[in-house]
Amino acid sequence: MGNYSLEEFLDWDPPIRGRISTNAAIGKTTWFQVGGNADILFRPKDTKDLANFLNNCPRDIGVTVIGAGSNILVRDGGISGVTIRLRDGFRNVSFEKHNDEEVIVTCGAGALDVIVSRKAAAEGVGGLEFLSGVPGTIGGALRMNAGAYGKEMKDVVVWATALDGQGSEHKLSNNDISFNYRHCNIPNDWIFTSAALRANILDKSAIQSSIERIANQRSDTQPIRARTSGSTFKNPNGHKAWELIDRAGCRGLRLGGAKVSEKHCNFLVNAENATAADLENLGEEIRRRVKDSCGIILEWEIERVGQHNSSAHGSTKI
Length: 318
Ligand SMILES: Cc1cc2nc3c(=O)[nH]c(=O)nc-3n(C[C@H](O)[C@H](O)[C@H](O)COP(=O)(O)OP(=O)(O)OC[C@H]3O[C@@H](n4cnc5c(N)ncnc54)[C@H](O)[C@@H]3O)c2cc1C
Fold this sequence. Notes:
With 318 residues, this protein is of the alpha+beta class.
């Protein structure tokens, strides 16, 4: 746990109201189901609790935030410092009708995208169907500017709130967040706590059919039941990453327990007891082969966090 003990966090005034634990098996709770433990895991009760935590936290400790873990690879050596996960106090979803057409959907950053999309559908609120195909949280979707089927967060966010590293709250407009492709430009240590999304009143059955269409397309084209983290690399300008990977002969490539999906070759899968190092090394091997085959350097979309395990580097042989 580095230089910090749990006691350090327990005698604050006001006290922590959320849950705090040490040596928490965080890697296994991500979509890849690999990687080490979090030194300290904090699950704040609500925004006030999180603000108090950030304000009192030793400045040099290092804070990592994880949503649903659907776009993250936790390395085998685990995450030092504090890992924060937004859960129950951050899952509210509410609807405010603006006029006969427009609805503002306000949601906590810990709400799952798919739940926001389904709750909206049940209210006859459309325009957020694309979120039904993204298996993360609203916080992760804001950070990654998540998108699918022609729409991304940039198109629907009205505002979002975030806490900075000292726990002060900021209300950010869509422009302030400065979304771009699978990225946004707010400082890395800021934590999104909520968002307001623009949506429309639509026919419930039309919304439902488009959610079903997205589900069918996804199960036809992506290994959605595998232990994966979605698209591994960003699409380079004017290219599709999967095509470059396919042309470089990487479809089905294996390294240790990690494999390039046969179904969608921009997806890596934990096929058989992979380590995080297997998955990262396989990703790096793909980058090498794609560069050799067409000169393009792929950029990781998956966020890799934590430390390598010095005693186990994973397989290096293909
Ligand atoms: C099967 C599958 C299909 C996918 N399909 C798509 C797709 O179609 N489109 C798409 O865009 N993505 C897709 N993804 C990737 C992933 O679901 C998205 O990137 C998602 O937005 C990540 O959200 P998360 O909550 O899981 O974030 P995590 O993976 O936990 O974290 C991702 C990043 O967001 C940061 N983060 C998380 N919460 C917060 C917060 N509250 N405040 C600040 N930063 C935060 C983390 O620190 C990290 O940098 C897919 C993934 C899988 C496994």
